[in-house]
Amino acid sequence: MADGEKLLLRFKSKVSKPKEMQKECAVLCAGCVLCRINDDDPALFGEKVTLKQQKLTVHYLCLLTSCGVYQRGKENEGILGFLEDDIRQEVRRSSHLTCVSCKKKGACVGCNVRSCRQMVHFPCGRNLSFISQFTEPFPSYCKNHAPSQSLSVDPNISLPQSCSVCLDSLDPVLSYSVLKCPSCHASWFHRDCVQRQAFSAGLFFFKCTLCNNKDRFQQEMLRMGIYIPERDASWELESDAYSDLLEVYKHCDSPSCLCEHGRSHSSIRGFVWFEVVRCCLCGSRGTHRKCSGLTLKTTDWACGDCTQATDGKASLVTSPQAVLEVRHGCCVVFFRPTLSDKSGSPEELLRSLGPQLHPGVAQVEVDGDQALSAGLDLVRRADFDATHLLSVKFNNVQQTGPPSIVQDANAARQYFLKLLHQQIQDSVVFEGPCGSKNLALDAQALRDDLYFDVGCLLALCLVYGGPCLGFFSPGLYQCLFNYPRLLTFDLLLQISEAKSLEELRGVLEESWEFLQLAGCSRPVSSLEDNQNLVEDLVSFTMITRMQLPLQRFREGLQTLGVFKQVQLHPSVFYNKFCEAAVPLTAQTLGQLFSVHFSKQEAKLNREMVVVTFWRHFLLECEVGRCSVSLQDVLRFSTGAEELPAAGLLPAPSVSFLHHPESSADEGLFPQSRPESRSLHLPITSTYKAFKSCMEQAISHHVHLLPA
Fold first, then answer.
1. What's the CA gap between 18 and 14, in Å, rounded?
2. Does domain 334-581 have CATH number 3.90.1750?
3. Which of 355, 470, 555, 582 shows the smallest number of beta carbons within 10 Å?
4. The pTM is what?
């Protein structure tokens, strides 16, 4: 090839590249082939999609609302399933139709009423109050045939004067440009505002800005022509949208920084005196250890602002080893051990919260059977420490309980916790049926801070060997520990189970005062409204109305770390809080005792036989073939009336009594030491002799106790 031809080819290539770029820009800047408009506003017109090779640009909403084009392809074919040939055919069809708004050709959106001949471009339809419904079969309606909203509220109620989305003023008159929520009737908004909200939130997050209703709100907005894209919210689709949350504050705010590398330096390894410690309350202030005179073990430093806001006690409030409660002008400090993150049985988890023994003893004096009154006096003392052992003394024992509570300190404590458990669930703090209690709202209890005290007493009851609670409703447990269950209230059941609109209205009329207080008083036009009412009532009853009692009750349960432990393992503790105690079985009782065998082989052989007698004896007690019950065996062996929530401590054990003459089967009876939870079984050669001596000893022990 000659040099002249090469130069000519280079010149042509340089000239052709700008022309190709110009053509590409012309395709990208071209207007929609259906509406002939170049505007690119995805919230109002849908995404503007361009096929570069076919030189085709179209708005997505123009495609959905056009009368003569249908989605006949797959999602990856053409433009989101609309084939190129179908789009061009629709362009040719609409080129003969005139828009009644701009008077230009290309109108592709028509009123769905057959007798109506109005045709518009999709953007022009917005100017003429056209409503397009973005559900199958995507109909559009002119201003004369478009759906509308009705006021349906009490004329005496004042209407909002501002948009609940943009907060600008609006005229509270329902029209094409002003819409309202069908549920609360208090949320009014501009059409363009709610359309942009729907485009941003997507199908999964689009709901009313005031009442948070989702299902009914979305159905009404679709009926009134609001396009809701079937995708996640726009803020969830951004890459690294929450990356800033992973950054921690690393800056020394001390008045005089001593670090040579500057305030932004934080040393983790090596010279840790210049490690930045963040405020344990706000996390938005920091200091080097050296700059504020902190030790290497200090982890609960609080900045000056937080210390001032908490009256100088900020470092104590969030200490990992102490919880400080300030009330009635006195400080009550609860120390607690470090919690284990390993999951296990509820008994093991509660035992891990066992108090660290201190020399001090918390003395409790109970007058008669007034256990709750004595417990409240205990936790309201200025010097009360939850880690001190409880020493219970009953006055007027003849009217209270068994005489063993006078001689046995452990029996007195167990009986006190049992009475306390019964009286707490019958107190004014709780309401509802037996076995499914919810927190009750009592003004006097709030003033007396009774919710905190009861939470503290229940925590002590669980850790110190009291019975399982077993009376929380699933709804209360859900609100406390975020373990999902359903709520059951009489009013909620009546509303949800209403079989006719008249029955539903009758229930609402009977409870109109409570509904008005809850902000749920509204006109009911259909039976389907009952579910929205149930959701609103649940939100009010268990969240809004009970926010302060729940907060104080949680803080009381934090005693000895009970609340945190249950919050870490809510499914493990659910049975302890919400279900009645399981009846005692032979298998359960047999697994409680660990067997201590002798080392001598001759004795070991006889003890192995007695162990089989023991297990068979428990089975006969369970089925009623013995004169004693499993509860009698438990009481004789351990002194406990029932199994505590934290299990028996120390762990029960079984050992054996050997007769000097191995052939003798009489003269030996079982012996028990309830204080050490130990049971000594007699060595016999036959099961009949074993059963006889066990029944005699246990019956004698039971008959000594009062009925």
1. 7
2. yes
3. 582
4. 0.45
